[in-house]
Amino acid sequence: YWNNAYSFAGFLLCFLLAVASGMRKRNFRLDLAFLGPWIVAFGAMILVAWPLSAYPSLSTRFLLYYVTCMLCVVVIVSTVETWRHLTRLMAFSSLALLVMSLAGLYQRIQGVEVNPSYVDMNLNKGMPGRVWSFYENPNTFAEVLLLLIPVAIAYMLCSKGWLGRFLGFFSAAVGCVAMAMTYSRASWVGLAFAAVVFVVLWNRKLIPFGILAALVVLAILPDTVFNRILTIFNTSDTSTNSRFPLYQAAGEFLQQRPVLGAGLGSDAVRQAIGDLNLFHGKDHFVHCHNIYLQVWCETGLVGVISFVGGILWTFKKGCRAVARATCDPVVRMTILGGAAALMGTMVCGLADYIWNYPRVMCIFWFVFALTIAGIKVCRRETEAA
Prior knowledge:
Elements: H1 4-22, H2 37-49, H3 56-79, H4 83-110, H5 138-158, H6 162-182, H7 185-202, H8 207-220, H9 223-230, H10 238-241, H11 243-256, H12 266-275, H13 291-322, H14 329-348, H15 358-384
């Protein structure tokens, strides 16, 4: 049972410790320059969107979620200085991935009851219940796996000891099995895209082998998983069909308030759409089921542009960093894993609001900070060389 105040308290403590320990270092400072102008602008829009919210009382607790993520990013980017620091972060990420994945497998062994609200039973006959591990919802669990599996693979490939290689491999393998058991289609597509990005940035000569491996995996997939894949573009699927009224309601709201949005948090957006009577679907409106629409509805036009621009800016910087011959192999793989995870998650975000659970939001920004920290270390190594 998790309380999001634990995340806030933990990162606030890390921030205070970082400042306290940095007092002994003459050149220590909180590093915002490496974040880039886009993400700094997005952070500013978060702080502005709260007082400008149409429902400030509903936005207050969401401000704390964003502040938690800001602390996470600032602490990691400011304190990581060497490839050893990056290795530790990847090692503990892999360990966390292993623990949550094993919990998902144990849940499957124990048996999971099929929840009709999670799946169209007419199109997915025989499909077992979807596992969720510690995350209350199978889609949420799948999004966490999507963020951490590429990091574990990067750790496996760059680890200098057999224990690290084994941890990275075993974590990624068990994570992939757990991912299949979530039956989360958007995350499957996101993980496939992350794999393509990873291979292209790592070694393009491996693309034919990657395609062959994908065909082999498709051939040996269980029937329930393969049938679930076939429903991705089936508009008669109730889960897919239910998203269209959500998109329509969000689009109509943005026509009325495109610049400012409703204010921070899904509660404010839900209240605004309810007050304007814009949603006409069968179920109730929870969120936009699309991260771009949701961020736009919460932070306005400048917010969504700065967010997307920040992720693309980071990916561009990451591509340049891994292309440098002076970049340390560990640092290079850290950037590769983080960049692939971010791009895969952004693809997943086309069909899901990946920040619906603050824990996933926190892990997203952790992976973002890990990537930025890798770019920072690579740049300093290049300058030193």
